[in-house]
Amino acid sequence: MALTCIVVTPEETAVNQTADFVAVPLYDGEIGIAPKHSPVIGRLGFGELRIRSGSTVDRYYIDGGFVHVVNDVVSILTSRAIPAAKLDENAANAQLREASAKRAPTDEQRQARDRSMSQARGQLAVARRARRS
Amino acid sequence: MAKARKLDKRRKSVRNIEKITRTMELIATAKFRKAMDRATAASAFTDRITHLVKELSAAGLEVSHPLLESRDKKENVLFLVLTSNRGLCGGYNGSVMRLAAAHYRELKSQYSATRLEVSGKRGISALRFRRVEIDQTFTQFEDKPRFDEVEPVADRYLDEFISGRVDRIDIAYTKFLNASRQIATVETLLPLASLSGEASEAESQPQQHGVSSYEFLPSAESILDEVVPASFKVRLFKCFLDAAVSEQIARRVAMQSASDNAKDMIRQLSTTYNRARQSQITNEIMEVIGGAEALNG
Hints:
CATH topology of the largest domain in chain B: Pyruvate Kinase, Chain: A, domain 1
CATH architecture of the largest domain in chain B: 3-Layer(aba) Sandwich
Order of helices and strands of chain B: HEHEHEHEEHEH
CATH architecture of the largest domain in chain A: Sandwich
Low-confidence stretches of chain B: 196-210
Number of strands of chain A: 8
Mean pLDDT of chain A: 89
Helix content of chain B: 55-70%
Low-confidence stretches of chain A: none
CATH superfamily of the largest domain in chain B: ATP synthase, F1 complex, gamma subunit
Strand content of chain B: 5-15%
Shape of chain B: elongated
Radius of gyration of chain B: 29 Å
Largest interface: A-B, 26 and 32 residues
Order of helices and strands of chain A: EEEEEEEEHH
Structural class of chain B: alpha/beta
Helix content of chain A: 25-40%
CATH superfamily of the largest domain in chain A: F0F1 ATP synthase delta/epsilon subunit, N-terminal
Number of helices of chain A: 2
Oligomer: heterodimer
Strand content of chain A: over 45%
Shape of chain A: globular
Strand order of the largest sheet of chain B: 3-2-1-4-5
CATH topology of the largest domain in chain A: ATP Synthase, domain 1
Number of helices of chain B: 6
Largest sheet of chain A: 8 strands, mixed
CATH class of the largest domain in chain A: Mainly Beta
Number of strands of chain B: 6
C-alpha cells in the first residue's frame, strides 16, 4: 500500500511518484500523510515538502497553494515547487533583507511584506535542512 | 541575353526566400509543440482547481468572494491586449488588434476612465500608429511565458481590483481551441464570471449539499479565499499561454503558404526563363544564318 504523490504547478506536473510517506507544509505547521489517510483539503504555507519512498527522501520547497488527499492520492497545487538542492540561498537572503527593510504603512502592504518574508524564510529553512541531511 | 539573366537572378532570390520561410516554418512547428505541451500542463492545474471548487461547493459552501461579484459602479476599467513581439505570423496580430480597437471604443463610451495595457511590440506599435494612449506595455513575454513573470502582473490586478481602483478587467487575446482553430476573443477577467470557466459542469451534477467526507484545514471558507485568487492567476497565465501557442500556429501557417507561393513562383519563373533562353538561341541562329546568306548572296 503506497501513496501517489502528485505536485502540479501552472507550468508543469513537477512530481508524479509513489511514496510511503509525505510531509506537507500547511499554513500553520506540518502535516504528515501516510497511506489510508482520511480525505483532507488543506491550505499550504511556504515550506518544505518531503516525499519518502523506501530509504530516499525528496525535498522540495513549496510556495503556498493547496493539498488534496483522497484515496491515497496526495495532490499538491502550488505556484512553485523547487527541489531543495536548487534553492538559491543568496537570493532568499536578499529577499528577506529587502522585505524586512521595507516600510509598510497600509494593511495591504504589510500583508505583502509578511508574505514575502515568510516566503524567504521558508526557502532558507528548506535550504538549510537540505544541506544538513 | 539581358532578360534571361534577369529572370535567373530573380529565381535565385525567390529560392533564397523560400529557404528562409521554410526554416521559419520548421522553427515555428518545433516551438508550437513545446508551447502546446505547456498549455496542456497548465490545464492539468486548472482541472484540479475546478475539482477543488466542486468539493468545496459539495460541502455546502456558498461560493462568494469579492473577486466574483460584479460591480454596478462603472468608472475604471482596465483593458489588456496580448499580441506578439515578432511579425511574420499572418493575421494573428491584425485580428486581435481589430477586435481590441472595437472593444476599446465600446469601453470608453461606458466607463469614465479606461486604462490600456498592451503586451507585445506589434500591438504597441500598431496602437502608437493609431495615436492611442497606452498606460503600460510589456515586451518580456516571448514564446514561453513563465508563471513567475505572469504572477506579478496578476498580483497587481488583484490588488487594484480589491482596493477598488479598478471595477473591471478585460483581456483581448487569441484563444487556442485546437491545433486548427484559434480565434481572437475578448473576455472579462475580473470579476471572475465562474471559477475556471467549468463551474457549469459542476452545477449540472447533482450534489448532496452539506455532506462532505473531507476535512478542511483550516476551514472551507479560508480555502475558498485562497482558491479564487489562485484560479484567477492561472486563468491569466492560461491566456498568455494560449496567445503564445496561437502565435506559433499562425506563424507556421503563414510561413507554409509563403513557402508554397515561393515554389509556385520558382516554377513559373523557370518556364519563362527557359522560354526566354530558347528564343534567344533561336534569334542567334537566325542571325548566323542571315549573315551566312548575306555572304553567299
